[in-house]
Amino acid sequence: MTVDWVCKHHSDLGKEQLYAILQLRTQVFVVEQKCAYQEVDGQDLESDTCHLMAWDGDRLVAYLRLLDPASQGGDVVIGRVVIAADARGQGLGHELMEQALKQAGKHWPDTPIYLSAQAHLQDYYGRYGFAVTGVEYLEDDIPHIGMRRS
Question: Most-buried pick from 50, 80, 92, 117 (CB within 10 A)?
Fold first, then answer.
C-alpha cells in the first residue's frame, strides 16, 4: 500500500474529502463499534481544526483530527483516530501518530497535546510520550483514559 499523507485546515477540505472522513469515522465508530452517538459533533469545521488523512489512491485509509488549543483550553487535542478495517495491521497507526505529532508541532509548537485513549491503548500512546492524566471513565460503554504529552 502506498499512502499519501495530507493535513488540511478545515477550510481547505474539499467536499469529497469531508465526505470520506465522515464515512470512515461513521463506519468504524458507529457501525463497527456499535456506538450510537453524535459522530458529527460540530468541531470538524471550528476554529483552526486540522484534518490528517492517509490516502491509498482515492481511498481514505487512516485519519485523525487536531483540535486547536485556543478552543480546547490550551492543549492541542487529538481525536477521532481511525484506521480502515482492511488497512489495519500494516503499521499505519504508528505512521498516523508520527504524522500527528509532526503536524501538531508545526501548527502549534511547544504546545501540550491531549487525547482520550481507549484504556487498553495506554502502552501504545505511551510510546509517543503520552502519560495518563486523570482516572479511567466510560465513553459509549468503552473504557477510556485521558493522556497528555507535554
Answer: 50
**Helix (H), strand (E) at residue 80:** strand 76-83
Please give the CATH topology (third level) of the domain spanning 4-149.
Answer: Aminopeptidase (3.40.630)
Q: Could you give the CA distance from residue 126 to residue 137 in angstroms, rounded to a whole number?
A: 18
- Spatial separation of the C-alpha atoms in residues 50 and 59, rounded to whole Å: 19
Strands 113-118 and 76-83, by their bridges, are parallel
pTM of the predicted model, to two decimals?
Answer: 0.92
